[in-house]
Specification:
alpha/beta; 202 residues; 2 domains; Rossmann fold; elongated; single chain; Arc Repressor Mutant, subunit A
Length: 202
């Protein structure tokens, strides 16, 4: 029997996951303080839905808890899955996955295996240029400035590029993030917790 914590903001998802895992013979809880809960047990699996910055911060904190194996649950696997693995998730699961996939992922994760979609594994093993979830500090700073309202011309001036060159660079950045334009890039960055709270809240 495994001890599994299900952390998701939607009661329907929590109850559904709890029902599936309980029927498979596992003990499922939704602890208020998952760090203390994990520390009091020998081995646990934490099913953690990553929707906003506090969830990502909790993932990093759970990385330091030796008893906890985290399954990152994601609404959209790209590019968040790569980032989740880099920050400590052992396995990755799409939030829309079915009951059989949920059970297999939780049980394999408890056995010390990593469960990742093939394209996520390819992104992790293809080197820095093939990792859409891992942007450079410079690229992150551009996204933050765009989110704060900077124009492409202002960004180009600050970076020392022509406006035309900056447009080309940003177009490639959007492709790397698997988005089409500035608005989608900013929304994706917000979703992944890459923007400071002051920007995200405005």
């Amino acid at each position: 029997m495994l001890h599994v914590a299900v952390l998701d903001p939607l009661p329907l998802f929590r109850e559904g996951a709890a029902t599936v895992l309980s029927r498979a013979g596992h003990r499922v809880e939704a602890p208020e303080d998952v760090l203390a809960w994990a520390a009091s047990r020998r081995l646990v699996v934490v099913l953690l839905t990553l929707l906003d910055e506090p969830n990502w911060e909790l993932l990093v904190r759970l990385r330091d808890e030796p008893a906890a194996a985290v399954v990152a649950v994601l609404q959209d696997l790209h590019p968040a899955a790569v980032r989740a693995v880099h920050l400590g998730a052992r396995s990755v699961l799409a939030r829309a996955s079915g009951p059989a996939s949920l059970c297999r992922t939780v049980e394999a994760t408890a056995d010390g295996q990593a469960v990742l979609p093939a394209d996520v594994l390819a992104a992790l093993t293809s080197g820095p240029q093939g990792q859409p979830g891992m942007l450079s500090e410079v690229q992150l700073s551009w996204l933050r400035r765009l989110a704060a309202g900077s124009t492409v011309a202002e960004l180009a001036d600050a970076a020392g590029y022509s406006e035309r060159a900056m447009f080309r660079i940003l177009k490639q950045l959007y492709r790397d993030m698997d988005v089409s334009n500035r608005m989608e890039a900013v929304l994706r960055a917000q979703e992944l917790g890459w923007l400071p709270s002051s920007i995200r809240g405005s």
